[in-house]
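Write out the 3D structure for:
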Amino acid sequence: MRLYAALLNQRLVEYTEAEGLRAPSQAGFRPGMSTLHPVFTLQHLFDRARHRREPLFCCFLDLQGAYDRVPRPLLWEALARLGLHGAMPAAIHSLYTNAQYAISVGGRRGAGVPSARGVKQGCPLSPTLFGLLLDSLHWELRARAPDAGPALACGRRVPDLGSADDFCLIATTPAGLQRLLDIAHAHLTALGMAVSAEKTRVMVFRTGPAEGAPAPAWTCGGAPLGQVAQYKYLGVVFSAQHGLAAGFPHLRGRLQASWARLQLQFAELGDGLSLALMRQLFMQAVPPAGSYACEVWGIRRLCGREKKDRDRLERAHVRLWRRLLQLPDSVASAIVLRELQVLSPAHTWLRSTCRFWNALALRPVGCLWRAVALSDWDDAIARNVKNWAWSVYMHLTDLGYMLHVDRRRLALLSIDTVMRLHTAREHACWQHCDVCPRTGPSAGAAHCTYLRWFSLPAAARGNPYFRLRLGLARVLQVVRFRLGCSTLPFVAQRNRRVPRAARVCLCCDPGAVGDEFHIVFACPASVCVSGHSGRLCAFCAPLHLYHACIQSPPGHLSGCPLHPRVLR
């Protein structure tokens, strides 16, 4: 039955999208759309209002039991008005013929009760049916209040935004917002919906504190509505003075919470856990939680507290990668990311932003989201508004990517070129590091040591050390050794900034240089040492088998007077 409903939903979606029957402001459960589009639009409208030093009035509606209150007779009428006749509506009707619901308590199910309202929970068809019924709200607002809502650069007005059952009403005046509330309440009530006045909130975007007249009061169905200075809309925290730029602490909290939940999962897996599996699970669960909606804020030009908050969020991402490998914060982020073979948060955010830009540029003419993007671009070029499009343009210019400027359209980005330029900038820290670690400068010695002795080949797919069959604890010891943060004596001496000449191996003849290369390839006592060095005993032999531990020793040590020995 679920497969049958999915096929019906696919055909229904294809028909309604091709015929342009959906409300342009509704982004929920539609192909090529997501919660990003309403979030992006709301931020754009805030940027326009802030540039003009005008307030923006928003009301976030909360519907009580939205999916469970759908009147099916009104739903069938809505489908008929959309031109659905014959086999398709009959097939949809058949899913609800003799529909019943029952209550289950303690594994015991009660008697079935006929169901005449609502759409089925978990059914692939339900979100589309709900959206088709609630699309009428947009058309009602446009018909009864054609001049309501803020205008885009092209003159098109946006009185509402929607994503499934999350609706936002937008106006430029208090009276305009009340008018939209009255229309919405009357229409939703006619559809059998109920607006929760206790959870519905009003937020007024301002550039500064309100002055003059007392704050207005809004009502919905006679019930007063509360006003807030901060609200989480579609998972993104907006503030009245800073828009979505105030949501970085919330994202950092989501990031930490995801890591805490993942650690509990690691504990349940126990002995079946490997470092390769930990890395894979981490990548799927943790970074996305702290990068939600990065397409809108990832490369946005910020200043002051907001910029510091985003920088903290970026550092939190890398810090959790270190926690995964049980590394101290002193290990450089570039080394950690290279060992894990993962992209930096800034790289991910930029790539997502470029993809979102191209997706908006390819939207069809007349699409609301394309009109919003063009309005954002026009404000950036013609009025120098410090918005999303301006930030993208400035960021690409800083990278050396020349973006074609045309106020009438968005030029498609060559994402490969942009990311290549960004990667070159990120890899600048590795410049001048391709020298022998024993003779190179002290500045950047950690980068030099990792690059010459431990970095994997560029064509390597996956880190072979993560798959060593030594147990998780010992594999982590291998990784810490490779990243220069083991408990070996010469590492402690290096951290105390002991001169290189004084860092000698305590297990060899006097005068032997103590470093990672010596321990793995040269020290005759590396398999039988004691004390702190004894921790190498468990994995010294595997390191010999994995010759990539130190790439091409003869070539790396060519010209190095301190180590004339050549491994054969």
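The CA atoms of residues 75 and 129 lie 7 Å apart.
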